[in-house]
């Protein structure tokens, strides 16, 4: 069986007409993904994202903290797995990150999948 995941919109520019992105919109997307049968939902880890490098207007745009957002999504959903599209290890002390991830795994009922890397 193929498991298909969905990278959720989490940046200020992700959803047309919603700048900045509203919290309820993100949670709604996660709940809808679960209802549609997606096996997982994913969030990336950036402090800011400069979309002008991709030819779009504007400068830095904010986004939700993926660990906080995934904790909220865990409470809004029941079965969908929760994933990080590469948590940037250098942004956080290792022990603090490990504790946060372990807590998130407990809060989600063991649904967390972690992608860990250097980031960009």
TrEMBL record:
Highest rank taxon of the organism: Bacteria
Keyword field contains Flavoprotein: yes
GO BP terms: alkanesulfonate catabolic process
Gene Ontology MF terms in the entry: alkanesulfonate monooxygenase activity
Pfam families, A to Z: Bac_luciferase
Residues annotated as domain Luciferase-like: 18-120
Keyword list, A-Z: Flavoprotein, FMN, Monooxygenase, Oxidoreductase
Keyword Flavoprotein annotated: yes
Transmembrane feature ranges: none
PANTHER family: ALKANESULFONATE MONOOXYGENASE (PTHR42847), ALKANESULFONATE MONOOXYGENASE-RELATED (PTHR42847:SF4)
Protein's name according to its UniProt entry: Luciferase-like domain-containing protein
UniProt organism field: uncultured Acidimicrobiales bacterium
